[in-house]
Amino acid sequence: MPDDIPTYLILGISAFAAGVMNSVAGGGTLLTFPALIAALAPDFGLGAAAVANATSTTALLPGSFAGAIGYRKELAGSRRFLLRMIGPSVIGGALGAWLVVQDEQAFGVLVPWLVLTAAVLFLVQQPLSRWMKTHRPDHEPGPVMVAALIGFQFLVALYGGYFGAGIGILMLAALGFMGAGNIHQMNGIKTCLAATINGASVVVFVAYQLVHWRYAAVMVMTAILGGYFGARIARRVPATLMRWVVIAIAFALAAYYFAKQAAG
Asked: Which of 43, 46, 113, 210 yields a CA-CA distance of 20 to 30 A from 241?
């Protein structure tokens, strides 16, 4: 419909930018999520946040799987470790998505806090990385440490299924602390597990008919294009600059949603 063209254009641009951002520094959800809330609010009211979350996750999922495939060489030596993490990732991701479905209005109330959590995660990313470099163990993680990592991965997946922005930072921190390979291997594991978490949550969202497919279809195509061009842009734009853009957007969004909630 002609009246929908501006909406589709805005959503397409947000998904393209999200694809670029995910390729360079992460945080693409922080662009698609608010754009979808604005588009869906007239029809869904308080439930718009839950539908926006489901649609955003679905739209960005192909990019997650493409990223995981891109790391297949780095994952070759980490298959045994990766297989241990698949189970908690699937269960946690599905359970987190199920919690969204059970109370869509509660999810809407929590949106400011979820966005603020993502903002804080991106803010502490670099200090956390520096700390990891000086505290990495010089030996393979033992059974107790592996069990602790599996439990932590379940909690990360639970949060990822519920909202998702910032799960890569949490996983890299845990993997680095456990000494789970070099940075390339850890990035491969993180990307593959993120795709697994998002895939599990999308299955739940689709089963409960929470995805707005017309919007998702447009956003999938532009997000893939954004991911492709983002890989090229990454060679020219410092990741640190993009990370601070993500942080600024996240804190601005959190402030906006808190103010909106306070205004009733």
From this structure: 113
Asked whether the CA dihedral 51, 57, 61, 63 is positive or negative, the reply is positive
| Domain spans in the chain, listed from the N-terminal domain onward | 2-262
The DSSP secondary-structure symbol of 112 reads: H
Q: Is the pLDDT of residue 184 over 80?
A: no
Report, as an integer, the average pLDDT of 185-209.
87
- Tens of pLDDT, residues 27-66: 788 889 999 999 998 888 778 899 999 999 999 888 777 7
Q: Burial, 6: exposed, middle or buried (Cβ in 10 Å; 0-12, 13-18, 19+)?
A: exposed
- Burial class for 257, CB neighbours closer than 10 Å (0-12, 13-18, 19+): buried
DSSP H or E segment with residue 193: helix 183-207
HSE at residue 184, side-chain half, CA atoms within 13 A, is: 8
